[in-house]
Design a protein that fits this description.
The structure holds two protein chains of two kinds. Chain A is mainly alpha-helical. Chain A is built from twelve helices and no strands. Helix content of chain A is 74%, strand content 0%. The two termini of chain A are 28 Å apart. By secondary structure, chain B is α/β, with parallel strands linked by helices. Chain B has two domains: 240 residues, 3-Layer(aba) Sandwich (Rossmann fold); 100 residues, CBS-domain (Roll), CATH 3.10.580.10. The chains are: A mainly alpha, B alpha/beta. Chain A: Belongs to the binding-protein-dependent transport system permease family.
């Protein structure tokens, strides 16, 4: 290895060879782990394992001899499955709305003309998260009626901040010299935004979206408080009925949904990241 | 005004809000077609600002900018910039685009067709000394600093602009690579003949790169604008003198070739002549050394009076060997370097066949320096008289 370095011929011509042959260090275990993204592909196995455990637990419950309420609460076709769909729907729609609102807002707030108001808007978005989630829900429920839509909007406000902040940070961290070079070559501000700034900010923005998604799945558990349904209903029943089995099934289902979407986020981050960075 | 001015700045001014002193004060400047004009000055003098006024990355608050006698002070700045190559010190390659895509930035905006863009990218990579097969599809992070800067220059040349603006392009590169890039760039420029405005804070780089140099003081006021030779020979004031620093005379020697010197006679004998003839020749001149040349008039040995007196006439291993021969194209700087190393304090100049054409001595250099200084001073006196 040292031979390679010390006896390297001095490049003489215009060959642009000053980089020389890359010296490849022996790859450690963690480096290999990172390179192959093993975490990314082992996570589904973990999630599947969790599903399996829950399935076995559910099968072994002696529902026939349980109290009526418990039996009713744990019905798959009429309770658990529809609730799970509601859960995903609330979280997903809320996240999509968050992205639709927060990304353009973040873009506008990083433009020179609006840069000065950025901190104030972030402060407002911050208060959305600082408010107790319960209070926020009730506020929206009171204003918009006790239904799922109201819950969704409450979660939009709640999850706005991570996407907004990450959009702004992602755009701000783009190397000024790259933008300067683009502008200097005659790219319009719009071209610089769409061809340079946004692609380079994608990883950071996606990280924010992933956080919002997971946040919303957690929050959707509370949607039942204003009549929004979702898996919170089952968990709450478990507490009310003092039936641990109901509680556990509800909570583990929420965990499975959350982990699945977090994994989807990770996959998106991995494959939507522009090459070269 | 002269129509040869490719870029003309007419009392261009930049004043920032809330400051009483302008950053650039009423600057008028002509850049001729095909020349490298270097803007050089201490940090904070506004040289980068001045450069960025030309492509209106910074909008001037007063004055006019002309390209080819066309007033571009109010045209669409984005369209203007597509006509002007722009290279900055940090390079600013787009990390998420391949080298070829980076180079294609301006052609793409000008809506060239795909085949033409691809061909142009390959051509420019060749020009930059990078093999397209290897580098076309790589990403900027895989390049070394020197390679990245080459790509930066190639990208600026993308749509073959007539004008290039370069803001300390080699500033962040190690000295050895920088030297190489400078030389490559000068070779390229000899071919391409672009009109270039080049900013640097390094006077040596300015001297090397510039056809003309503008030395800027505070608020981008031009203290002296001239060829490097004349600036070195005749700094107009203390500011310029301080800025070019010590050794300006020696640096000036770089600009004159030995062919420009009038070398007087020098005592020589041919190797078939006797030492006695040599002694006579030596006495006739007032020199201390004599040259022995062979039948083709090629210098062989340096001889002193004492050497000649003891000589057997064969001249083998007598006196000292002539080790260094310069050509007419070598500079006075080269000859000074050799003279300082040689025992005789002088240096042989030979033609293509190795035949002696003259001997350079310190007195020649002194005379050349004095002549350059006198010429430069006279030039400035003439300018004053005409003004």
């Amino acid at each position: 290895m040292t031979d390679q370095i010390t006896h390297r011929e001095m490049p003489t011509g215009t060959e642009g060879s000053e980089a020389g042959p890359p010296v490849v260090p022996r790859e450690g275990f963690f480096a290999m782990w990172r390179r192959l993204q093993l975490g990314l592909w082992l996570a589904p196995l973990g999630i599947l394992a969790l599903v399996g455990v829950l399935y076995m637990y559910y099968q072994n419950l002696d529902l026939a001899n349980a109290v009526r309420q418990t039996r009713s609460a744990l019905q798959w076709e009429t309770k658990l499955w529809p609730q799970m769909l509601q859960h995903v729907q609330i979280a997903f729609v809320a996240t999509v709305v968050v992205v639709i609102v927060a990304v353009p807002l973040g873009i506008i707030l990083t433009r020179p003309a609006f840069r000065r108001v950025g901190p104030y808007v972030v402060a407002v978005a911050n208060s959305g998260q600082a408010l107790p989630a319960y209070g926020l829900l009730v506020l929206f429920g009171a204003a918009m009626g006790m239904n799922r839509t109201a819950a969704m909007w409450a979660f939009v406000v709640y999850a706005l901040l991570p996407v907004l902040r990450n959009t702004m940070v992602g755009l701000d961290q783009v190397d000024r010299s790259v933008i300067e070079a683009g502008r200097g070559m005659g790219m319009t501000r719009m071209l610089v935004l769409t061809r340079i700034e946004l692609p380079l900010a994608v990883p950071v923005i996606l990280a924010g979206v992933r956080v919002a998604m997971v946040l919303n799945i957690g929050m959707a558990t509370l949607a039942f408080l204003i009549g929004g349904g979702a898996l919170g209903v089952t968990i709450y029943s478990g507490i009310e009925l003092n039936q641990n089995s109901v509680l556990i099934v509800g909570a583990v289902l929420v965990a499975i949904v959350a982990l699945t979407f977090d994994w989807l986020g990770a996959v998106a981050e991995r494959y939507l990241r522009p090459r070269g960075i | 005004m002269s129509s040869e001015a490719k870029i003309r700045l007419d009392r261009v001014e930049k004043k920032y809000h809330g400051t009483s002193v302008p950053a650039v004060e009423e600057l008028s400047l002509d850049v001729h077609e095909g020349e490298i004009l270097v803007l050089v000055g201490p940090s904070g003098c506004g040289k980068s600002t001045t450069l960025r006024l030309i492509n209106r990355m910074i909008e001037p608050t007063g004055g006019k900018i002309y390209l080819d006698d066309e007033d571009v002070t109010t045209v669409d700045p984005d369209k203007l910039r597509r006509r002007i190559g722009y290279v900055i010190q940090q390079i600013g390659l787009f990390p998420h685009q391949t080298i070829a895509q980076n180079i294609a930035t301006v052609p793409r905006m000008l809506k060239w067709d795909k085949a033409r863009i691809a061909a142009r990218a390959d051509e420019l990579l060749h020009l930059a000394g990078l093999d397209p097969e290897i580098y076309r599809d790589r990403y900027p992070k895989e390049l070394s600093g020197g390679q990245a800067q080459r790509v930066g220059v190639a990208r600026a040349l993308g749509a073959d602009p007539e004008i290039m603006l370069m803001d300390e392009p080699f500033g962040a590169i190690d000295p050895i690579t920088r030297e190489r890039l400078q030389n490559e760039f000068l070779r390229l420029q000899a071919e391409l003949k672009k009109t270039i405005v080049f900013v640097t804070h390094d006077i040596d780089e300015a001297i090397k790169m510039g056809d003309r140099i503008a030395i800027l003081g505070e608020r981008s006021v031009i203290r002296q604008l001239d060829t490097p030779e004349r600036i070195l020979a005749f700094p107009v004031d203390q500011f310029v003198d301080d800025f070019i620093g010590a050794g300006s005379t020696i640096k000036g020697l770089n600009f004159e070739q030995l062919s420009g010197l009038r070398l007087g006679g020098y005592p020589t004998i041919r190797s078939d002549q006797s030492p006695q003839a040599g002694l006579e020749a030596l006495n006739e001149s007032n020199k201390t050394w004599l040259l022995v040349v062979d039948e083709q008039n090629r210098p062989m040995r340096w001889m002193r009076e004492g050497d000649l007196q003891q000589s057997t006439g064969s001249y083998q291993d007598e006196g000292s060997e002539v080790r260094i021969r310069l050509n007419a194209e070598d500079t006075l700087f080269d000859s000074l370097e050799q003279m300082l190393q040689s025992e005789s304090g002088s240096c042989c100049v030979v033609d293509r066949h190795g035949a002696l054409t003259g001997v350079v001595e310190m007195a020649h250099l002194r005379r050349a320096i004095r002549r350059a200084q006198v010429e430069a001073r006279r030039h400035y006196e003439d300018l004053e008289d005409n003004a």
